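Folded chain entry
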Amino acid sequence: MSGVGVLDKAVLILEACTKGASLAELVHETGLPRATAHRLAQALEAHAILQRDHEGRWRPGVKLGELAGASADILLASAEPVLNVLRDQTGESAQLYRRRADERVCVLAAERASGLRDTVPVGSVLPMTAGSGAQILLAWEPPEAILPLLPKCRFSSKALAEVRRRGFAQSVGEREAGVASVSAPIRDKTGRVVAAISVSGPIERMGRRPGDRLGMAVLRAGQRLSGL
């Protein structure tokens, strides 16, 4: 503890909301009085450090993701040459995604120079409910963080178990008709998944089982960027 009372209490609230928490759960997890927990959670929500999900539970907000992203420059700097190599190895466009609440954001991309390609501009916001990148960003999350999203997803809990087993994800026409993709995790030093690295392109070129041909290349690229 820092000895700064309100700051220490706010940190307790943030830690309790990592996987989502109702007011009752905040009170239980932090030991704070109900009125105090509610006031601090609302204040953090006003600054977008926390946000409510569709069940009214507090979860980490977009501002927290922006702050975390600002400290992740080392990953972005390291990822650019790796994405370029992956694009050249596979012949497909390559992307790096980070999760932002119930969305994922393309933070880096390396596009094919010519020919039919799947273009995902940097800054594009895509759903967490479809695509191999979304599967990666959800697969290693705790069940209580996955279950609220699953009814909206175009993949199942069984598919996520298969992702964990083989280490990479593939999708065919899941996010967008005619587009296939393969993704793998990027982990921090603790082993937590912090980003997804992907290749994507037309189904007619990538095939109906793109992971068979491209899975290991994408997986190795993710491993090269893990632990930074």
Q: What stands out?
A: Residues 72-225 form a domain with the Beta-Lactamase fold (CATH 3.30.450.40).
